[in-house]
Amino acid sequence: MPRELVTIQVGQCGNQIGCRFWELALREHAAYNSKGVFDDALSSFFRNVDTRYEPPRNLPVGDGTGTIRTLKARSVIVDMECGVINEMLKGPLGDVLDTQMLISDVSGAGNNWAHGNHVYGPQYREQILDRIKHTVEACDSLQSFLLLHSLGGGTGSGVGTYILEMLADEFPDVFRFTASVFPSEDDDVVTSPYNALLSLSKLIEHADCVLPIENQALMDIVGRVEAKVQGSATGSAAGGPAGPGGGVVVAAAGLDSRSKPFDSMNGIAATLLLNMTSSVRFEGSLNVDLNDITMNLVPYPKMHFLLSSMSPLSAPKDVAKLSAPRTLDQVFSEVFSREHQLIRADPRHSTYLACGLLMRGNATISDINRNVARIKPSLRMAHWNTEGFKLGICSKPPVGVPYALLCLANNCAITNTFTTMKDRFEKLYKRRFYTHHYEQYMELSMFKHAAETVSGIVDQYKAAECVEAAPVKRMSPGGSASSSLMIPLIDLWGNQWGNEDSARKVG
Question: Of 67, 101, 103, 276, which is the most exposed, with the fewest CB atoms less than 10 Å away?
């Protein structure tokens, strides 16, 4: 049975990532669907529409041998400025995006979370909800929503988190994944510390799984890639050896001098989503659904932030020119390195609560187990989850490479990112800079509530970092004694979360 995924791309950044996502998704499915049929894999992201009728008819997958008529993305597109949307519609994706699923304004949210969340959100609620319901009704077995947005501006942060909260209310049984772009410390939006913290508090409360992506980390990755490619080109031109093996490999469109600004950065984020959903779309010897990710990698409610890393970072057509042949051992070592993280963090220096390793390509479970056994001694795993690895194998690699690996880690290193965001917020808020722009639309107490929410999740991750195994009590002649290794965590958090927060969805 098809398992559909509905993407909701919000704001300029969310739509630019979405644009690259659909381009790469089409390229990937075209590579593995040479017959041009509408099969289960293709139906995960696309509808097959017969436009000869009015209104157009959705054609079912059936036995997976039906001819493709017109593909339409299972996507709802929202932006309070029409520039990016108009550019998308004029480009090659114009026929893939359903114009009936677009919602836009002209004035924008003015880099103000409160304007987006308290004005545009309620104003367009019915339209947005109608588009989402229409998209959901065209699904046979909806598995998850994928929200693409950024936290630094006004629309992606404000309207994006408004939609996230609406999804929690209207579709409580459907998983809510977000790819959230965190602003860099030198962001040129002066109000981004406010927007980011307010958004983060909503992600903590209403998302099922958050994939943090830092602008600065993407820029650092692209910078290293460009230096490596230029070095390889120089070495080749001089007749000398190319650059060293391993390292970072970039997307086909990522380093083209004719590509649009940020295309390579957006391509990395899009590749993350394609790798994460590969088992939903393609067969494999050890498939991992999105519900498997939430059930295995989120051991405690609200601690649902997964650090992502990939190797190779994407798949160019001329991959052989950019690096030496890559072994499985190289790929596994790289996903645990600092240079391949999509946020600026070094997870090896912090505690892993759980870790997912999703392999794509010609690999066996013995290959993965061997590498896990090799790397595990260098990782600090939570004492109550020392075997906390979720493994997956999808038979279809990304286009252009023999295999690729995605690591999703629930790691306490995320506290550094949260603390930095909170510190940037406090520098502004203690002097009440720019707060009058927010007070037009919301109560000032919401800042305090957001800061407390973020402080709470930081404390919870720090507590998990510090908890050590309780000593095992021995039997004594006078009677028996026992202790639970989970008691410190239960005592610490048991009173903070009610039953409704602790209940997890069952896929």
Answer: 67
